Amino acid sequence: MKHFIILAFSILLYSCNHSSTQSKPSTDKKYQTYTNKGKGFSLNYPAKWDTTQKVPNVIFCAIEKSKDETDRFNEGINVSVYPSEGKTMQQIIDDNIRIANQIYKTPVISQHNAKNVNGVVYSTLELKIKNQGLTLISNSSFFSNGTTIYTVTQIAEESGIGSYRPIMNNVINSFTFLK
């Protein structure tokens, strides 16, 4: 049941949790690398985004700071990690699709499977919903090491999604499991 909360909770996310692990500069100065040895993964995130907010059940989060007083939504990235409890990644994704259809009126949902530049296989659900007068695009990318599901959720307003896609692609392509 924990997995179902990922999409629903992530859509409403305005702040996130930052656990005490390492962040260091990546080779691209626009990004930092977040490493969580305890959970066994690392990924890049925009260096100027805020990583100090706290929300339960989120391992890591980075939120873009408001551009000005008209900015109604702070785009962000969050990472949740849960045991797979014997389910396949596709079963968990199917459960998330079912729950999203129950929670949101007429969501637009698409799924694609891929492998990032590190060779890590993942599946992304893109969910377009209307929430509090905004049209939001949530991309939840699911990674599995066999016993654990890692969900990297990235949320942006639809009107600005074009400028956030490169950031989202960088985050997903940087995800790797630690050895």
Q: Can you lay out the helices and strands and say which pair or pack?
A:
Blueprint: H1 2-11, E1 22-25, E2 31-36, E3 41-46, E4 60-63, E5 76-83, H2 89-103, E6 108-115, E7 121-131, E8 134-144, E9 148-157, H3 161-174, E10 176-177
Antiparallel strand pairs: 1-2, 2-3, 3-10, 4-5, 5-9, 6-7, 7-8, 8-9
Q: How would you describe the overall organization of this protein?
A:
The protein has helices at 2-11, 89-103, 161-174, and strands at 22-25, 31-36, 41-46, 60-63, 76-83, 108-115, 121-131, 134-144, 148-157, 176-177. The chain is of the alpha+beta class. It has one domain (2-177): Protein Transport Mog1p, Chain A (3-Layer(aba) Sandwich), CATH 3.40.1000. The chain has a six-stranded antiparallel β-sheet, sandwiched between helices. A four-stranded antiparallel β-sheet has the order 1-2-3-10. Strand 6 and strand 7 (121-131) form a beta hairpin. The longest helix has 15 residues, at 89-103.
Beta fraction:
35-45%
Structure annotation, total helices: 3
**How many DSSP E strands?**
10
Shape: globular
The CATH class designation is: Alpha Beta
CATH superfamily: Mog1/PsbP, alpha/beta/alpha sandwich
Rg is 15 Å
Q: Tell me about the largest β-sheet.
A: 6 strands, antiparallel
CATH architecture: 3-Layer(aba) Sandwich
N-to-C series of helices and strands: HEEEEEHEEEEHE
Mean pLDDT: 83
| Uncertain residue ranges | 1-20
- Measured as a percent range, the helix fraction is 10-25%
The total number of structural domains is 1
Instruction: Write the CATH fold name.
Output: Protein Transport Mog1p, Chain A
Q: Within the largest sheet, what's the order of strands?
A: 4-5-9-8-7-6
- Determine the N-to-C terminus distance: 28 Å
Helix- and strand-based class?
alpha+beta
